[in-house]
Amino acid sequence: MIISAVLGLSLACATTQRVGRDVLDVQTDQAAASAARSVALTPSVVATPEPPREDDLAILEAEDRVVSALYARVNPAVVHITARVITMDFFWGPMPSEGTGSGFVIDQQGHIVTNYHVVEGADSVSVTMADKTRVPADIVGVDPPNDLAVLKIDVPPEQLHPVELGDSQLLQVGQRAVAIGNPFGLDRTLTVGVISALGRPLQTDNETVIYNVIQTDAAINPGNSGGPLLNIRGQVIGVNTAIRKNAEGIGFAVSVNTVKRVVPELIAHGRYRHPWLGILGYSLTPDLARILELPVEQGVLVARLYRNSPAARAGVQGASRQVVVGNQRFLVGGDILIAIDDQAISDWDSMLEYLEEKTQVGQTVSLTVLRSGQQLTLTATLTEQP
Q1: Which pLDDT band, with edges at 50, 70 and 90, does 325 fall under?
Q2: Kind and range of the H or E element at 292?
């Protein structure tokens, strides 16, 4: 009996403790639910952003006014160019087609700058001006290597509003760039970006290189070709020329300094006379210099010279023998061109760039060459590239 009583007491106590815990759990759950309902009913506090300061808005509005004023001032100089091309079809005979692009007026005589590829092969060209006047245009001159062309229209001077040309030497990466043109036939479209890079070489479809090209992220599309790229002052800093395929925000413009160098020649002679030295050679690299046991690692190893070329008349010497390295044959033993007018020449491209950008036909240049380990200075008068 005592044992039973004790056991009964123990069981009772255990039951009481279990019930106590259940009651406590219920109370806790009810308290948590009540707290949750209280939180749910309490409105959340969301911070209200402060309105922009008037000083900040004034800066942005001033920038907007600058761009709008730029457009109003330069837009009358931008033209829409339509080039008509006649192609022969085997079955249908002559078939006309049209291409469009942009351009801009540069003087009161009616000269217009555009890209060569805009008017390439055109049988006739017409220009639509800002006031919707459409007039025929003559092709005055073209320069395919720099993708530039000059047109001329015959309209009263008061209808012409020439642009102001800037200086691409003063440009810096990060500066504003504004493009105006006719992308996809959408007349007089303005886009704004920045100068993304300077001094780019641009390989063209005809296997030539345009040097010192401007890269921009201002939107450029088909139809923008030939239109002006402007700085924030409304001065032309380039001619919109190309975009990178399968990419966004990568456009290229021929620099205005190239325009100022080439366009007067196109107006005067109908073509640009490219300076020419008349050599063929190899770009030196450290590996090639080591293999051929040459004394320098940079420069142009002269292989051959064109007969009666400026380099030949100056006394430059070409290869005297040939060697085979791997599966390649090299003409060696000729002079190594290391400088022109005391400007270092590191490779073939730097030589072509210097001749194109810094010299002109008829100019006399000094050539620094290495011959049999000795440095010589020769003098050459540049002629027009044949």
Answers
A1: confident
A2: helix 286-292
Domain that holds residue 86: 74-159
Taking the C-alpha atoms of residue 40 and residue 300, their distance in angstroms, rounded to an integer, is 80
Residue that terminates a domain, selected from 221, 254, 269: 269
Q: Which residues are catalytic?
A: 117, 147, 225
Strands 134-143 and 148-152: antiparallel
Q: CA-CA distance, 242 to 365, in Å (whole number)?
A: 33
One domain, residues 176 and 101: no
Q: What are phi and psi of 348, to 5 degrees?
A: -60, -45
Q: Which regions of 171-231 does DSSP assign to beta strands (E)?
A: 176-181, 189-203, 209-216, 228-230
- The verdict on 282 and 374 lying in the same domain is yes
Q: What is the Cα–Cα distance from 91 to 84, expressed in whole angstroms?
A: 20
Write the CATH number for 251. 2.40.10.10
Final residue of a domain: which of 99, 130, 159?
A: 159
The pTM score is 0.80
Q: Which conformational region is residue 223 in: left (phi greater than 0), alpha (psi within -120 to 50 degrees), or beta?
A: left
Rounded distance between C-alpha atoms, residue 202 and residue 117, angstroms: 14
Alpha-carbon gap, residue 244 to 144, rounded angstroms: 19
* pLDDT tens by residue, 39-74: 455 556 666 678 888 887 888 888 889 999 999 999
Confidence class of residue 184 from pLDDT cuts 50, 70 and 90? confident
